[in-house]
Amino acid sequence: MQTGGLMRLPFAFVVLLTLSSALLAQVPSIPQPPPRDSRSKSIEAAVKAAYRREFGQTIEHPAIYNNPQALNCRGEGHLTTTAYLRTGMTTTLLTMYMSRDGTTVTHRAQLQVILPSAGTIRVLVVIVRYPETVAAGALALWEDAQKQINADHAAFARSRGYNAPIVVFDNTNLIIEPAQIDDPHNPASVRAAANRRGVSTVDYPIIMAIDINPQSSAGGLSITSERSVYVGNYGSWKTPLSAQQWKWVAATAYHHEVAHHWGWPGTHDWAGSCGGYKPEYAPFIAPPVLFGWEDLRGDHVPEILNRTPPGPRP
Asked: Closest by alpha carbon to 130, among 172, 179, 164, 84?
């Protein structure tokens, strides 16, 4: 599967830059879910019935996002529900879009997720060094931006009372010259370049290329079958990136592109967002509940980590 906005400039540039600047300006302040009333219980019952009808699955604690303010630019919105089913090393994601009252299913999908949205994720990052955009101190700025991503996940965990973050990125960074890589867009080329530097790529669930080429504007790209992420020069930058700009790039890479590997679709429509609407789930790209990060059972455990019988706690 190939997702992202590589060929959708200038629209992708505007979307990515706007999202990144808006979302990275703060640490998570996501409110706790409101108490469940009779209407929400009725909707939950309808969602459970839809899982049985559409997938033949009994989902006792479905993740539901149903914010009436979450609309696309045509003024359209829907209820979104997800369920991650984990069997051994296999994770299956079930997704449905429904009417706000849960009575009608408008879209359904079943997807095997190669990378679950939990745990410590090792990422090998290959940064292509262009003197015009990647200055001598760029690595330190990039590492600070990576720390901010982990800080976002840690802040979310604290806001929910978890003992540890649900997701932690363990990063290894390489800076290489343009002549040392055949094609930064190509995951095989990125892996070959790392191997030539003596770094084996087999132990990294995600291989990431950061390609701020001053001569070429490009957006982001995820190829889930390759476990790869590519981020190009979507800002059309011609001068060395600032600390804030590196944070935008990190937000695009980790909050946006990695989310595709967790099952967030290329249509980007789990939750609508248009114009000046600021999503309440910032700095994340989609509602955390849909990634399995909320406690749906009242046991202080995010749903993605829950087990029957209970297993390790975050």
From this structure: 179
